[in-house]
Design goal:
Number of helices: 2
Strand order of the largest sheet: 1-2
Oligomer: single chain
Distance between the termini: 17 Å
Shape: elongated
Order of helices and strands: HEEH
Strand content: 35-45%
Number of domains: 1
Number of strands: 2
Largest sheet: 2 strands, antiparallel
């Protein structure tokens, strides 16, 4: 569980630093017999401050909860 919390914290900090992520997506244009024609489209997605804050906060909660011993 502690590893999950650390991953959430690192991911949240990454989202705070990089507010936009660009990626290429291949889309089928035509499908003729055995050959297909693909076109790559560049897309951008925005990472908001709220989602990164929630990720960091939930990571801290998970790390703190993992430190407590369950009897």
């Amino acid at each position: 569980m502690k590893a999950l919390g650390i991953i959430l914290i690192i991911g949240g900090l990454f989202m705070l630093l990089f507010t936009k992520i660009s990626f290429a997506k291949a889309e089928d244009i035509a499908d003729e017999n055995f050959m297909g024609i693909d076109q790559q489209q560049n897309q951008t997605t925005a990472l908001t401050f709220y989602t990164s804050g929630i990720a960091v906060l939930s990571g801290v909660i998970v790390v703190l909860a993992a430190k407590k011993k369950v009897d």
